[in-house]
């Protein structure tokens, strides 16, 4: 359980946006905190991937040569759009 004393201006913004979205202040705050935590997790994963990046790149032409461009002989997509 967390109890927060919000500055008056922030409390007013919270009230306004929660009402506009038709959700409780608690739900709005929980969603905002959850999204922020997810953003920080994504950032950590991206930073770890960048740290491990060896700089090697594969040209698109090489990938298309090996796997094709995703179309059949007539230029039609091999997979339906999702």
> Largest sheet, described in full?
none
Q: Secondary-structure element sequence?
A: HHH
Strand content: under 5%
Computed over alpha carbons, the radius of gyration is: 23 Å
Structural class: mainly alpha
Could you list the spans in which at least 5 consecutive residues all have pLDDT below 50?
none
Count of separate DSSP helical elements: 3
What overall geometry do the principal axes of the alpha carbons give? elongated
Please report the distance between the alpha carbons of the first and last residues.
41 Å
Helix content: 55-70%
Number of strands: 0
> How would you state the average pLDDT, rounded?
92
Q: Could you outline the blueprint of secondary structure elements for this entry?
A:
Elements: H1 8-21, H2 25-52, H3 60-67
Care to describe what's here?
There is one protein chain. The chain has 82 residues and is an all-alpha fold. It has three helices and no strands. The mean pLDDT is 92.
């Amino acid at each position: 359980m967390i109890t927060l004393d919000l500055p008056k201006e922030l409390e007013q913004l919270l009230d306004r946006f929660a009402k506009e979205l038709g959700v409780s202040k608690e739900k709005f705050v929980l969603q905002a905190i959850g999204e922020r935590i997810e953003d920080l997790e994504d950032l950590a994963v991206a930073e770890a991937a960048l740290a491990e990046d060896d700089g090697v790149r594969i040209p698109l032409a090489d990938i298309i040569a090996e796997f094709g461009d995703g179309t059949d002989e007539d230029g039609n997509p091999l997979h339906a759009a999702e």
